[in-house]
User: What shape does this take?
Amino acid sequence: MFSLIKNEKTKSILTDSALMMLNSLFSNFLRLALISFLSRYLLKEELGLWVTITSLTAILIGGDFGVVGAIRNKFSQLLVEENGNAEAQRYFLSALYFFLIVAVVLSVGLFIFRSELHVFFKSDNEYLRLQGQYIILAVQVIILFNIPLSIGTVSFFSFQETKLNVLFGSIQSLLSFVAVVGCVFMNMSIVLVSIVYFLSTLIVNVASTVFFLRRRKWRVINIHPREIYIKVKELMGTGIKFFLFQFANSFLLNAGTVITSSQLGMAEAAEFNLVQKLYMFALIVYQSAVNPLWGKYASSMAVGNWKWVKKVYLASIFATGGMFFLFTIFMLFFGNFILNLFVGSQYEAPLPVYFLMGVSLSLYAIWSCAITLQNAMGRLNLSLVVSIFLAVTIVPFSTMMTNNIAMNGLLISLIICYGILMAATVTEGVFVIRKNINSGDMTELTR
Assistant: This one.
């Protein structure tokens, strides 16, 4: 383990991970602070509406058909080639142009079918359900344009510029927090508050992408539609797997709040989501720490350094399991204290909810760490099949469990789903690493 730390590449990972963790701590603290603030100004059902909207958005935000993930891998390949920078520019702009057109088309479609959006909200308050419908419509249009206009933000990783991603991420979190607090003090409706929250994210992502282009000295140039089609089609070859994979797993992670809202009610959804938020704070911080591994895995595999990949992969898996086990124990003792501190004494949860939530998100954390390797390889077939199967079955399965034992039943169904997903992903990762190491050893012997 200590020999790993002496490695320059590992030092770079640790530095990037530390920056990402600090940014994630800051951003998630502001999100918790925002929930704390809103819980004191909104009724329980209104807060339930807010968390349901943000959960739905988290599910649908991966509507880039996986091209953003694929383009990160493409950049990692091109930047080690001669004249790769110019080709990377054309890939970047092709994706940007294509998804701006898609955003316009899908926005029109959302407007046409807007009357069907009320099904996500169970409430006797018809006016509140109508507000939810308006919010989903407006927010999803913003998200659709956010997809192409945020490509520059995530592309900083491929150019080893984690610091810039951290900078813009911190600005985004701070601006969103200030904007929402200001809207509430001006007595704006929850519809306007929600729109301003997501619009502030779009503004920062636009600024980040413009900065990315200027830093690369990439001008906005004309690209023939046929070339756009060819490049986007290539990215989608792997990208469509990223899309289906991200969508399925985002659904698995956020389905709990949406199912609670539709089956038990928006007030219950608020309670479920608040407990989940406490665990998600640790999960998102940890995910930000392992995010730089994607680029490092890709570059190491490109030069055949599979032994380094194995050491880091196994170390990260065991570290993740250990840390989230300890965090779950901590939450059993202090969960309600922290919840009361942030949102007031009207929100509390029983110990079984904290325990089951901790187990489910510990399994999800191990999976999210392990899947970084498959993302870097573009090898998603097994995880994709398992994820889609679980995403399709979780709604009827968890609905049945929820009807029988309420929120505990929902959490048990999530534990089963995350456990299957984690086991399949880790098993495949270990198999691929061993196969490539053995292949490399045989190559050395035959020389």
